[in-house]
Design brief:
globular; about 190 residues; alpha/beta; 5 helices; six-stranded parallel sheet
Amino acid sequence: MTDFEMSLRGKVIAITGAASGIGLQLSKLCAYKGAKLALADIQEEALDALVSEIKAGGIEVIGSRVNVASSQEVDDWINATVNHFGTLDGAANLAGVESGPKRLAGPLAELANEDWDHILSINLTGLMYCVRAQIRVMQAGASIVNAASIAGLMGRPGISAYSVSKHGVVGLTKTVAKEVGPNGIRVNAIAP
């Protein structure tokens, strides 16, 4: 293996949204690079399958069903991660939704309160719960990556709640980076 492939060997990485999409691929990549993983997702069956696959490769991994919209579940997950591994070196906060329970997309005039609340509770408030719990236990040299979106950099018609949530992720990421940067903790966002 090259030095690049071994760059995460022994590092403890926490990933939300690990059972699908970007979170699934990142979990597999981090495992390939030798990281110890604390994976979280609300999709329990898919998460269990991923944990089994990674364990079969000889990687130390724990999986937890976590609803990121619950402050208590997030705090319990991060505390369990540190209790199990002794530290937290990095995190990728990738859990998110694009729509609410009532409607996929549409103009603001037709947006249901339940859709607004659902999207913001996961994409923004849930991400805040994760970052807050993570920075409480991280030491200098640790790193956090948050999932923003191109929609978080510009408005788009028909997806107001999603766009607002991702604008909030960008603002939260910039603010927290300034708060914990002097402590040697990096906080960045990606906009896939």
